[in-house]
Amino acid sequence: MVDTCPLWVSNPIYTIMSLQQIDFSKVLNDEQVYDHMMANYDQLGKDWINHQWRWMNAVYQAFKDHYKYMIIISLVEKTLQFYDQMNIKLSYEQYYSKNFLQIDKFSITELCEKLQLPKETVRRKVLELEKLGVLKRQKKQIIIDRRSFTFIKPENQMKYTAGYILKISEILTKEKLYSKKLEVKMIENVLKKNFSICWRWFYRMQIPMIIGYHDMFEDLTTFHVWGTVCMNQAFNFKTALNKRNGSNQTHDYMDFQKELFTGDYNEFNESLIKGDKARSNGVSAMSVSDMTGIPRATVIRKCKFLIKNDFLRLNEKKQYILTGFNVQRVLPYQKLIFKNKAKFIRKVLNLLTIS
Questions:
Q1: What distance in Å separates the CA atoms of residue 344 and residue 198, rounded to the nearest whole number?
Q2: Strand locations in 34-116 (E)
Q3: Are 65 and 59 a contacting pair, CB within 8 Å?
Q4: Helix (H, G, I), strand (E, B) or coil at 143
Q5: Pair 216, 223: CB distance under 8 Å
Q6: Contacts of 65 (CB under 8 A, 6+ apart)
Q7: What dihedral angle (degrees, nearest 10) is formed by the CA atoms of 209, 212, 213, 219?
């Protein structure tokens, strides 16, 4: 569903007093945020990959099972949607002060449709969550027990997300599109103060993204492994980029990603790092396991699938690196993801403007 309603109209957090103080000529739109993210991707790519990788780690670490976590946050998003529709705003503290979260009219079919998973899979995962005491079902209602809050409270994620939003705001400020001076702590506080609406925006960005990657890689563990290799390569690439011509050259999204995936930066990097090419610095199965908590045997099995399907290859050190095939498969989908990312960031930045 396309969100065409302006933020200040669609949400009650924008009071009449706040509206009177807004300079509407400086209100951001999705296209402005998207265009400047893409044009300045050399400044953002590593941070975005790191942001998403940290989130995937949190998804896995909660239950050592990506799908259990996705079921939980899909149900949480349902409660946030209800609060939004009822014009109820809850802070982070208010939301998690409850003894339980109740979701009305729960059904396995609804979850299957939202997560695009088979009924048998969702039913099995829900039963496992019930055995853990995380979920309790009462007819067509489901209750998320307070004991599970430690698994799903996004305390650390808010810090990472606030840091990324700050970087976007700095780019928009340089382009004279955004004027409010921000700090990470201020952004985090506003996210917490307006938690029920802001984190619904966040989940509306993240859940469809994860579903799409599930389809592309056939399961989320495979995507998590691939993403870890991608993050390692992005850090190596960014280091090499910073040494090129004093890092004065601006890379847009396509240039950054093509060089990241295909390794076009090897030539200059070879002369800078005494023949040790940045792209050759891959990551081993043991390192991926240590970084993610995914068992090494599982990592090896998933990497075999990724190699077979040309997402990864082994370098001369028997480490995993990306292949050029990712440009054809991954980049078109990522551009769609970034449309949702731009929408989320636009909403938060406009909220920060009047906070």
A1: 8
A2: 100-103
A3: no
A4: strand
A5: yes
A6: 125, 128
A7: 120
Both structure tokens of 32: 């402005």
For residues 332 and 338, give the distance between their C-alpha atoms in angstroms, rounded to a whole number.
Answer: 10
Query: 251 is written with which tokens?
Result: 């890379």
Spatial separation of the C-alpha atoms in residues 101 and 146, rounded to whole Å:
8
* Nearest 10 degrees: Cα torsion 265, 271, 276, 282: -10
Q: Is the confidence at residue 15, as pLDDT, over 60?
A: no
313's enclosing H/E stretch is strand 312-314
**CA distances (Å), 93 to each of 89, 97, 134, 155, in order?**
12, 6, 20, 11
Q: What is the pLDDT of residues 71-108, one digit of tens each?
A: 999 988 988 988 898 898 999 999 888 777 777 677 78
Using CA atoms, how far residue 346 sits from 27, 157, 169, 208, 349, in Å, is: 9, 18, 10, 18, 5
